[in-house]
């Protein structure tokens, strides 16, 4: 392993050329960006219309211009750097004494970097503006903090106790480094090196204990935790129950990690505690790999401690400590595990080019594509490019080309082998080949179709992040022209820069402040490496001041995290126990746990597959204990397309499922057609008052059609059979309603329906009630009691026997109301107000806004001016009574 100083015969010349190349590159790319911005004007509305044909929720925000600009940047910036370094190293320019420009260029670059940092953080938090405008993409901090700095660091020691931090910085962080600068032998003896290892390791163990304690829990208590936890936990519950992913449409947001973790739970029962224990251990392992990599790359233990602490705090813990607790396992460990593994394996390979490690790394990173394709692809591509970069150590062009071709072939072969083995294993175990292309669904939805993307603001902290990556790339590309500088550490800087740029794609799409910090872990590793390189120059006692300024600023940036972590000890201890969260969510958690027992007791007597239709934050909590496969995948929270919504609706209609539905918490509009299908074709079997078990309604003999649809005064008429077309028609009336109906002073509503126990509290037969106008008839929270409502707080209760057919007639004549049930007059009298027209669509078998679907058959529905004769009503009533 090489931990020696980099051989740099003319470090000042390198820096001067590097700064000039970076400024030239930024100017060149800016000109390209201006041209693209001016000439490229895509039709975003057309793209949004196309996306909205595919996606649900109306959350399509395509960013074709922004995406093009970013991709051009990824492609052109390295090429521009390569071009300008080539020009600067031509023989014609070799006579220039670049050292003369070192001081001026360094000062300009420091000022430029400081301006990018300062202006970006002082700029407005873009989502704060959107909150004011009513945008729903924001979180709680977006409603409180107008600037980016306040968003991130309002509670930080830098903001609240800057004097205390400066004292700590000067005497705890900077002073030891100054002593080391003048008296290196104090720190370079073996005993002090051992002490450094022990101290950094002790701090790391302390951090790891905190992380594990926070992220291993028995139950997700906060709303945020339930919501994000379900996304990750649901696929695990289904794979554990025996459902293969990428089969029958079962694709999860974040990859196939559940298949790789499933063997662990063969030895321990899957539950929230065991799953979060594994997740917490993976986070600890992830950061252990980062720490080991830093030990191999950086000699100074204080820099390692500060850099590692910042890499742990900013991208990972900050979000959890200053917002309501959220175990967002999607980022750590799932997304970040294989980038960390790439860094770890590369830290060994670049110093010891072992063939076994070479092939092992390709195989493991190919598995990473399956684990999480989003960052898995980034990891293996970064590894491939780094290997190709390392080939340029040679002066033999043919050898370089052969080496790059070899790496590419191994890269392609590894992916083919891993995907083939995975597909064969799935077929062997489950009897079906996976539809591997579905692995990319989430990436397609979010990137190509623009699902809930957010625009990048031009002035933002991301400018500083990108600048650091450009500096890393510039350093690595310059080494291609100065082969003595193409060292193991330079290769590693290249890897970190490429990894960082690849991970930055995530922020480019979903450009929220939280998304940015989650992909900055490589920034702090790069800053740590730069700090040690600058410190090496400072120790040479040349140009100490100009090197000390950026070095001091880097240490200042890296240092505050360790202070913040100690300042948040009370918060971390609170998160260990979550006593406040438990208390605040006691009612909800009690209901969830009661429902779990209810579902578990009934699921034992059901088929191998059940369907639990509930809020997306509860679905996995209910599925895990019953150990049953879901009759439909993906989960509710992973349904993004209208195709999947339609597939779910059709599954409910065609199959006989055991459906557990929690109607009170289920409000998602994109699956309301499924809810309408359930209530049209299923009946309530049993309920605990919160969860309802629905079973397929047996086919019934329907009454003959009795209403006069051809009457001249008919305003609306339709009837329903038990066939698919009628069910779809009823679903359409439930979701979209029929045309608005303008009744007169004398009108009536007649309907034939089957009354039974309702799944929804307030299950509604019809409604166009709005703003105290219109009419609605709904179940009144009591099985046999219904309520007809009109006007402001006007209405009447009617009692209708359950489990039988009813022919109900509502006659409104000026201020008189008569109601008949199966030919018998059950309500008669004057009313304070005649029902006004609402001119809203009349919804049948559902409330027009509240999604309160009616459980039961509806045979006929008629609205007409005037009313039927008493004789006809009694005649029709006798026919229905006989059913």
Feature tags:
33 helices, five-stranded mixed β-sheet, alpha+beta, 883 residues
Strands ordered across the widest β-sheet: 6-16-7-12-13-14
Radius of gyration: 33 Å
Which overall shape is indicated by the principal axes computed on the Cα atoms? Answer: elongated
Helix content: 55-70%
Q: Gap between N and C termini, in Å?
A: 88 Å
Provide the residue-averaged pLDDT.
91
Description:
α10 (190-215) runs parallel beside α14 (301-322) and α17 packs across α19 (397-430). This protein has 883 residues and is an alpha+beta fold. 57% of the residues lie in helices and 11% in strands. The longest helix is centred in the middle third of the chain and has 34 residues, at 397-430.
Q: Which SSEs are present, and which pair or pack?
A:
Elements: H1 11-39, H2 44-54, H3 64-88, H4 102-122, H5 126-132, H6 148-153, H7 157-160, H8 162-182, H9 185-188, H10 190-215, H11 223-241, H12 257-261, H13 272-297, H14 301-322, H15 330-335, H16 337-349, H17 355-371, H18 373-391, H19 397-430, H20 441-448, H21 462-478, H22 488-509, H23 513-518, H24 521-539, H25 544-567, H26 569-577, H27 579-584, H28 586-603, E1 609-613, H29 619-626, E2 629-630, H30 642-654, E3 659-661, H31 672-681, E4 682-687, E5 692-696, E6 714-719, H32 724-735, E7 746-755, E8 764-767, E9 775-782, E10 785-790, E11 794-799, E12 804-813, E13 816-821, E14 824-830, E15 843-844, E16 858-865, H33 870-881
Parallel strand pairs: 1-2, 1-3
Antiparallel strand pairs: 3-5, 4-5, 6-16, 7-12, 7-16, 8-9, 8-15, 9-10, 10-11, 12-13, 13-14
